[in-house]
């Protein structure tokens, strides 16, 4: 009997220890998630309190696919992801291969490349905004010194603004991809390269026939994580362009912010957020299925 009491007391103590964590998850994650799911079917001006809630059913989702601002944001996000992810991976792989072989002070260089990824994205965005200044910025000053009399307007030009942000994000993500690729390179047996060298293979041929295939699991992991990150990009757009000029840099996360906190359409913003969630969820499912395939292959 005494043993049962002690066991019950230990069980209660254990639950009490994990209770704060469960409360945090419920208050900060689960409740907002469920609340947003309910808000998807409403039109709510939260400045009026709960009196401003109107049930609209699926009207928010119907409106989404005829909303030119949402479609433009989705288009910008897809372009952003399609360009940023492969470029970050290619540059990161090249840097990883170079640092893994013939470079002195590789540990210092590895830290320098990785530093932008762990730095504040707000601070980085402010610095790049100064660099992109179309009149006094260092980038255009360097282009003029090279003989380009009319350099791009960068953040002030609708045709260049999204490209400018992508360049900054690629520079930021390169350190992340480089670190993961260097870890992958450490797992490739040196015997494969020695056998290829004996067979007369060049370094370039060994790279495409040994390095790239052996890094497929790493590449797959990087591509999925970067796709999720790029679909959630917000701070860089908010700091550098605020979605402009002419909505040329508005992405899904920033569009959700505008609808919720500037247009006061919480229900419509919730519908957008769930569409974004479904996109990320599909990517995650692809990752899960792909991981099983790579595990079975290797």
From TrEMBL:
<feature type="transmembrane region" description="Helical">
    <location>
        <begin position="160"/>
        <end position="183"/>
    </location>
</feature>
<feature type="transmembrane region" description="Helical">
    <location>
        <begin position="268"/>
        <end position="288"/>
    </location>
</feature>
<feature type="transmembrane region" description="Helical">
    <location>
        <begin position="219"/>
        <end position="240"/>
    </location>
</feature>
<comment type="similarity">
    <text>Belongs to the binding-protein-dependent transport system permease family.</text>
</comment>
<keyword id="KW-1133">Transmembrane helix</keyword>
<feature type="transmembrane region" description="Helical">
    <location>
        <begin position="12"/>
        <end position="41"/>
    </location>
</feature>
<dbReference type="GO" id="GO:0005886">
    <property type="term" value="C:plasma membrane"/>
</dbReference>
<dbReference type="InterPro" id="IPR051393">
    <property type="entry name" value="ABC_transporter_permease"/>
</dbReference>
<dbReference type="GO" id="GO:0055085">
    <property type="term" value="P:transmembrane transport"/>
</dbReference>
<dbReference type="InterPro" id="IPR000515">
    <property type="entry name" value="MetI-like"/>
</dbReference>
<feature type="transmembrane region" description="Helical">
    <location>
        <begin position="111"/>
        <end position="131"/>
    </location>
</feature>
<feature type="domain" description="ABC transmembrane type-1">
    <location>
        <begin position="74"/>
        <end position="287"/>
    </location>
</feature>
<keyword id="KW-0812">Transmembrane</keyword>
<protein>
    <submittedName>
        <fullName>Sugar ABC transporter permease</fullName>
    </submittedName>
</protein>
<keyword id="KW-0813">Transport</keyword>
<feature type="transmembrane region" description="Helical">
    <location>
        <begin position="78"/>
        <end position="99"/>
    </location>
</feature>
<keyword id="KW-1003">Cell membrane</keyword>
<keyword id="KW-0472">Membrane</keyword>
<dbReference type="InterPro" id="IPR035906">
    <property type="entry name" value="MetI-like_sf"/>
</dbReference>
<dbReference type="Pfam" id="PF00528">
    <property type="entry name" value="BPD_transp_1"/>
</dbReference>
């Amino acid at each position: 009997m005494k043993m049962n009491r002690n066991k019950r007391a230990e069980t209660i103590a254990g639950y009490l220890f994990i209770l704060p964590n469960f409360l945090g998850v419920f208050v900060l994650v689960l409740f907002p998630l469920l609340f947003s799911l309910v808000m998807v079917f409403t039109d709510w001006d939260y400045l009026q309190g709960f009196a401003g809630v109107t049930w609209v059913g699926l009207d928010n989702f119907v409106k989404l696919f005829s909303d030119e601002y949402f479609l433009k944001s989705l288009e910008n996000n897809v372009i952003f992801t399609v360009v940023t992810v492969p470029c970050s991976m290619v540059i990161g792989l090249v840097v990883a291969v170079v640092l893994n072989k013939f470079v002195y002070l590789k540990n210092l260089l590895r830290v320098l490349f990785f530093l932008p990824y762990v730095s504040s994205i707000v601070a980085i965005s402010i610095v790049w905004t100064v660099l992109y200044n179309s009149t006094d910025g260092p980038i255009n000053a360097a282009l003029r010194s090279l003989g380009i009399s009319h350099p791009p307007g960068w953040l002030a030009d609708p045709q260049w603004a999204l490209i400018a942000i992508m360049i900054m994000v690629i520079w930021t993500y390169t350190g992340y991809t480089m670190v993961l690729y260097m870890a992958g390179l450490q797992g490739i047996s040196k015997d494969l390269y020695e056998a290829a060298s004996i067979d007369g293979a060049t370094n370039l041929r060994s790279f495409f026939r040994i390095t790239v295939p052996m890094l497929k699991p790493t590449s797959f992991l990087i591509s999925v994580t970067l796709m999720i990150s790029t679909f959630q990009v917000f701070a860089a757009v908010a700091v550098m362009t605020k979605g402009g000029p002419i909505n040329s840099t508005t992405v899904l996360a920033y569009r959700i912010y505008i609808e919720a906190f500037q247009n006061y359409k919480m229900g419509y913003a919730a519908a957008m957020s769930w569409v974004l969630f479904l996109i990320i969820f599909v990517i995650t499912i692809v990752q899960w299925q792909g991981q099983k395939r790579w595990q079975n292959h290797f």
